[in-house]
């Protein structure tokens, strides 16, 4: 039986300012959910957002209040091992709130996988890989600093895929910045961009043409999420891969993209999809429709990153890798044993459930009171 649900907000500074077209992050608010069960088992989930309400329609504060006041009371007393039944109830009664639902579903599945003594990936269909390629986002806002940072990552053998955050400067300036980095890093390194919706369709036509000519591999969410027709036209016009991110809020959006040939690649995010199970459905649609897959992040800490890793490890096709570097952007580790990043890959945890344990002493210090 589910006996208690607790939401913990913890503010953690980032290792450097992280500049997106929608916000500059100096710190990240981790939103951690702990579900306790009558059999003594507990499960953890995470619902971290980016830049408060800058990126999406849920904030850390709204997630906490909505779980505390509206979601937890529906779950307390329910059978903890019946995760699908619990989530069906929440999905029927609670509109929206995808991030909150994701954290709850993750915590319930973590608890259930621990109860069964299996890694979470095995409840999600079973892993087909034990390690995932991980991109690093260069977002200092300064070309020379970004090149130095990328060279350091290559040297450490931590990342050889780089995503550049652009869209806040004029298109020509952004293109010059990206191509200078691509030239410095060379052909063996994959360089991608994330425009975070900043371009008009005409900006995108100019920007993508120049980036494609310069050898950039992937263009993420160039236009506004709701401009799906523009996105489809761009995907059909250019041969460089275009990826939907902010436009993808779960299986129904995935189906619409598949129906209208609207994109080449999906950035699958467990929070944006509304949970691990709907995120698996997004991936299933992609695989059925021949759309490429990329494992996305909302810059979560260790709990959400581990949950995402368990799901992405089940994807048969993962042509564009992942960006599960969230914990590495933070100055504080909140897991007792950090996730392992080596040889350009994240190792998918192998213990029961998420296979990670939050460090309660650290969280006691970091949590908001
Ligand atoms: C996004 O839009 O992809 C993921 C990596 C990063 O640096 O920002 C996020 C959000
Ligand atoms: Mg993105």
Automatic annotation (TrEMBL):
Cited Pfam families: MR_MLE_C, MR_MLE_N
InterPro entries named in the record: Chloromuconate_cycloisomerase, Enolase-like_C_sf, Enolase-like_N, Enolase_C-like, Mandel_Rmase/mucon_lact_enz_CS, Mandelate_racemase_C, Mandelate_racemase_N_dom
GO biological-process terms attached to the record: amino acid catabolic process; peptide metabolic process
One example GO MF annotation: chloromuconate cycloisomerase activity
Keywords: Aromatic hydrocarbons catabolism, Isomerase, Manganese, Metal-binding
Active site: 165 (proton acceptor), 323 (proton donor)
Cofactor annotation: Mn(2+)
Ranges of residues in domain Mandelate racemase/muconate lactonizing enzyme C-terminal: 144-241
Pathway stated in the Swiss-Prot or TrEMBL entry: Aromatic compound metabolism
NCBIfam families attached to this UniProt entry: mucon_cyclo (TIGR02534)
Family (UniProt): Belongs to the mandelate racemase/muconate lactonizing enzyme family.
Entry protein name: Muconate cycloisomerase
Organism: Rugamonas fusca
